Amino acid sequence: MSRNLIFGALLSAVFLLAALVSFVWTPYDFTALNIPARLQTPNLTHLLGTDHFGRDILSLIMVGARTSIAVALVAVGIGMGLGIPLGLWAAARRGSLIDEIIMRGNDLVFAFPSLVIAILITAVFGAGAINAIIAIGIFNIPVFARITRGAALSLWEREFILAARVAGKSAARISVEHILPNVTNLLIVQGTIQFSLGILAEAGLSYVGLGAQPPLPSWGRMLADAQTMVSIAPHMALMPGFAIILTVLGLNLMGDGLRDYLDPRLRVART
Amino acid sequence: MLRYALKRFLSLVISLAVASLVIFAVIEIAPGDPASYMLGMNAQPETLASLRSELGLDQSRPERYFNWITGMLGGDFGTSYTYRTPVADMVAQRLWVSLPLALYALALSTLIAFPAGIYAAARRGKAGDISVMGATQLGVAIPNFWFAMMLVLLFAIKLRWFSAGGFAGWDKGFFAGIRSLTLPAIALALPQAAILARVMRSSLLDVLGEDFMRTARAKGLTARQALWRHGLRNAMIPVLTIIGLQFSFLLAGGIIIEQVFYLPGLGRLIFQSISARDLIVVESVTMLLVFAVIFVNFAVDLAYAAVDPRLRART
Questions:
Q1: At the fourth CATH level, which superfamily is domain B95-275?
Q2: Where exactly are the structural domains of chain B?
Q3: Smallest CA–CA separation between B233 and chain A, in Å?
Q4: ipTM for the predicted complex
Q5: Subunit contact A108:B149, Cβ cutoff 8 A
């Protein structure tokens, strides 16, 4: 296993753990306002300092991790849940009209500026975590459809698939029993990358006020709150920023590491 | 080539048609009637009705869609509900901020990414490569709006080299305008530069393994000469696609950065219109951005096909 993979997995695990622990314990109640203790820089009682309402930033970041992870995870789930079947279907019927329709539909979604459409969706249907998930999830569908189809196409030419066809299995069954297990590695790697993009997207949407709504803490909203305070309390902006960067960095390194680890051919080629 | 261009043009038209339908549909199902929003809670039904007909809201949906599309094709983007001015004028005014910002960021991104990517590829596996790649990993992970806030903190609040936000206006001179766009452009460019540097590096590495590079070395060129004369040109194809994609991303991605710096660009226009429920502005500006993105992709595809005949045959 590469250093990238180990380091990335550790970083991601820290934030996952922080999110899980926040369900049962946070250093302070993240909703508790404590005005006398406001805008404290990091110290021993408040490890990451406090915000303009005196809320403990570490607690907010822990609960915020929950929001980020939940939004990104469900968005990846939407992308995989719809994208993979579409990709398998297109590959099974390669060259047919349905393949053409699926792929052109993909191109179309790809061509949309995702951020603009995410803003449009959340603006029209109301800001909130659910609409943010949908907006981010829609743009994950073509990513997974394309990757699945691409990998499945070359598999369809292989002997073991031919053998399965000779044995009388239907295209749908072959797709599920033989194609899918062989593209799983690729999908896991892509899933990690989309997950990190989802966290960035959620932060961006929340920052402009279209993501998670109060009182639900989110890293993007913490940054929006920090913006007007940045000259007197820079730590309010630094801490959630570091949380986003470290999580995304961890996921990306893990994705890169996983790709090398799961594909032995690449391991040889790269060294 | 003509056949390929026609085919791509057809798919451009279809993309735009579908995109416009989607945007129209989303705006149509948006809750809230603009007319009652404008007149407030206590509006008389008659005034409401007359305003609705003035705004064209009493027409049927297909009629409104048709009017919107034909209007946009002729450069008429409708009239803003709140400002009562033509949307086209508002857009034109805002474009003077958003477009230079995107171009500025693109220039910065390319200026950073090219040397970084070429350097990393030339020193593959050595310390220089590893540190450049490490830096790009970090660059990809940093949210640009957070980076923007940090730039403001350092260069505007602590060092006072730039203003923290706002736009000086081009009438104050070219440099005043450029100055107010510098921090936003850097913030926008950084993550893009990281991506571009990675693409540049891997594309160059692919080319370096080609037979013609070995031939170039065999005929007596040094590694450096071979890289500059033969490597770079051939590595440019994937790099150009990414640059094309980045331009449209920068134009659309400026939306959030404009919020950080209070720049009066298209992004702020969209947000202001959303909160004022000025849906015709939201609709037209979104469509315009989508058009820009799809059109740039189309242009990049054509540019490619012109450069590389193999691509024409493939599709």
A1: MetI-like (1.10.3720.10)
A2: 95-275
A3: 24
A4: 0.86
A5: no
